[in-house]
């Protein structure tokens, strides 16, 4: 859509129609975040802001409300992650994070939603299981409880462009399909990630993963 001569094109109409028709959660949420992130690029800001508005107008009230909640939460998490990066390297980082997340549990009560788990009804952050990871960018390890009493674990990263991860995962997904078609038994489980800005994103945590 970047290279279309006009913002209102047949391609845009087709993409928006596909996103709001039927499986809106499956296609609409990734589309919104892809358009939102591209709107940060100065040369394309106006175009992608128009595309975001076009999608939101077609998406319906409930989808708009959910995406607004996701955007609001991710902005809060981005600020928290940045504050953790600039804080002194002390043992109190985890307690600072947990206090901030408890406040989010109150302000986002009944409207907690993340780009990676839009289909899940999230209840709250399990603050006791959240922590600041020990790496230079100090990403946030977050554990949330769903309405069905299961746990969702994600990593929120600030200061990294996770769009590079997304492209790599798409390539692995294509390779995985080719291996399956060739009956090659490859034990590969792809995690998900969504960029929420050019320098932040949410990454799925795969439980019991083995890294070599």
Structure, described:
This is PI3K/PI4K catalytic domain-containing protein. The chain is 48% helix and 15% strand. It has 212 residues and is an alpha+beta fold. Strands 1, 2, 3, 4, 5 and 6 form a 6-stranded antiparallel sheet that branches. Helix 1 runs parallel beside helix 3 and helix 2 runs antiparallel to helix 3. The longest helix has 26 residues, at 61-86. The protein is globular. The model has no long low-confidence stretch (mean pLDDT 89).
Q: Given the C-alpha coordinates, what overall shape results? A: globular
The name of the CATH topology of the domain at 91-161 and 193-204 is Phosphatidylinositol 3-kinase Catalytic Subunit, Chain A, domain 4
CATH homologous superfamily title of the domain at 91-161 and 193-204: Phosphatidylinositol 3-kinase Catalytic Subunit, Chain A, domain 4
Share in helix: 40-55%
Which stretches are poorly predicted, pLDDT < 50 over at least 5 residues? Answer: none
Strand segment count: 6
- What does the main sheet amount to? 6 strands, antiparallel
Features:
212 residues; alpha+beta; Phosphatidylinositol 3-kinase Catalytic Subunit, Chain A, domain 4
